[in-house]
Amino acid sequence: GKRQIRPIRVVRHTIFNVYRRLFSIVLIANVIALVVYLLNSSGVLRINIWNLATASSANIFVASAIRQDYVQGLLYRCAWLIPHSASLKMRRIIAKLYENGGIHSGCGIAATMWFLALTVLAAIQFSHGVFTSRPLFTLTCCLQALLFVITISAYPALRTRYHNNFEMSHRFAGWIVIIVFWVELSLLATATANMESTSTGGVLAKQPSFWFLISTTFHAILPWVNLRRWEFQADHLSNHAIRLHFSQTVSPFTGIAISRSPLFEWHPFATMPSLAGEPTGGSLICSAAGDWTKDAVKNPRRYYWVKGIPKPGVLGMCLIFKQVVVVTTGSGIGPCLSILASPIRKTACRVLWSGPDPEKTFGSEITDCVRRVDPRAVIIDTKASGRPDMLALTYSLYLECNAEAVFVISNPKLTRKIVYGMECRGVPAFGPIWDS
């Protein structure tokens, strides 16, 4: 049964999930640091703008670094070192590592907060003649406006409703912020050098914000260095789904993002290894869900762009458990197969898969693969039997096989419902989050 009273369950498992806890810790720590710094200053007109720039650039650096493919891969690989003999409580905590997006969001808001303090301070000092550079003050205001655009467009409700606009504003405004930050840093260093009768380069080299900005610039460029055009072979599974095969070798349990227009939109997919009798390489399953995927199913391209390094997703965390229940609906079976079909997987898996006529929609190869992994897999045809009570079935399967955890890949509503329902019963449950 459920372990706590409803208000506590709601706060613990929804309002204050791990993502939001990380977000809150990062933001509160920055707020405290800013308040302490301002209280300990010897007056508004004497506050050193460089210190505020350093705090802002440090947060921007962390926000960009935590999102890097190589950092995500490293975090997962560290988690995979945890043996199955470790306590379930420890492994349950470590498995939540995939919710580290809270650090990205928290640092992004904190960077905007620090820079807002810098902008207000610059305005006060400018009005008192302490801060005299008009171009520098103008750039500061422009940079603040850009940070506001990035922050506001990333608000969950707006991001979901206007996702393409969010993606472009986040990318292009982010690049412009870095460029403007470089110009501003150079102007600030020049002004400081003139006052101290020293070189601009010498001033920059002494400033942490300079080195943070170098690292942030490196991280902005790095994924594009790995931009490649891959060839895909389309295998039409049905009118609603397509399987795209590629010859490149990717690490087990990882996913890639593909695009027709690299500058504008990217679509992530989990990869699965080649099945028995297929050429080496891998594949991904694309199901007609949105405008882009519907067009991809109807008119698949021979070539798509792939950026960055293949990185693990939430399902990668199932490897630190001895036995798990994998719950999915419809095309969610694609990401699940990245784990289920892996020949090096040591985790025992039970599968609960619900969808409209799965064998007809995704083909016998896919359903046969699922049954090879779990001969007793529960595959439900919702066209024939209607939509089942997935929460009840999940809990029943969890108890039946004495699993250690439940992993859910479905639409946001059902994923949250099952994860919440399991967590309330003390069952370790994991699924994608849509907050980041």
From TrEMBL:
Protein name per UniProt: Integral membrane protein TmpA
Lineage: Eukaryota, Fungi, Dikarya, Ascomycota, Pezizomycotina
Keywords annotated in UniProt: Membrane, Transmembrane, Transmembrane helix
Keyword NADP: no
Transmembrane intervals: 21-39, 45-66, 101-124, 136-158, 170-189, 209-227
Source taxon at top rank: Eukaryota
InterPro entries recorded: Adenylate-forming_domain
Source species of the chain: Amniculicola lignicola CBS 123094
Keyword check for Transmembrane helix: yes
